[in-house]
Amino acid sequence: MASSSPDQANASSLAGRLEMVRARIARACRAAGRAPDEVVLTAVTKTQPPEAIDAILAAGQRVFGENRVQEAQGRWKGRCAIPGLELRLIGPLQTNKAADAVALFDVIETLDRPRLADALAAAAAKAGKPLQLLVQVNTGAEPQKAGVLPEDVDALIVHARSLGLTVEGLMCIPPAGAAPDSHFALLGEIARRNGLKVLSMGMSGDYETAIGLGATHVRVGSALFGERNTPQTPSMD
Ligand SMILES: *Cc1c(COP(=O)(O)O)cnc(C)c1O
Q: What's this model's pTM, rounded to 2 decimal places?
């Protein structure tokens, strides 16, 4: 491979891996005939220690995904003044945590039931804070997985809009071990028929595929920080 390949970037440092992921996003955009700035990289920081957060902020990353409200509060409450910071909730949300989630997050990607829409509308009104929402779709209809079933998405969007909420797009997590392409395509179809522009899809293993199928936001964790819950944490510089 030529030495200019993004794959040759310094993969032993967090900054090097960030550069590599950004280069791959740009390459996938070009291959799909899209502009690289059409796709936002959400760095998934769940379980990461403060040193890793410091390192990725120093490398210029500003958009982050977290899957638990309380854990995210611990990691980000002291850093909320960082200019340009955008926090996105990408994990399931209980209605009794709606107010905490609205207070901390700029975007909630996991609206998946009418009662949660009710709780978020009430919390957003009380906080006087505009809320950006995505609806999580359980594209594989997996019983254990969060997300609204594909056949119920349109009604949930209508309900959310009736409460004055703005739904900007959709999010999905395809079934593990299956080819994600048909799930990404389905998400795109549901978005189009509902007039939605934002598609949060694609993780470390499949973000290039997702970009080819229209992703506007890719959620990448382990490709940046290394595998989670392994004794050998990659060096953070
Ligand atoms: C953890 C997580 C990711 C990141 O997964 P990686 O495979 O580590 O990139 C993306 N989306 C959601 C919803 C997650 O919980």
A: 0.92
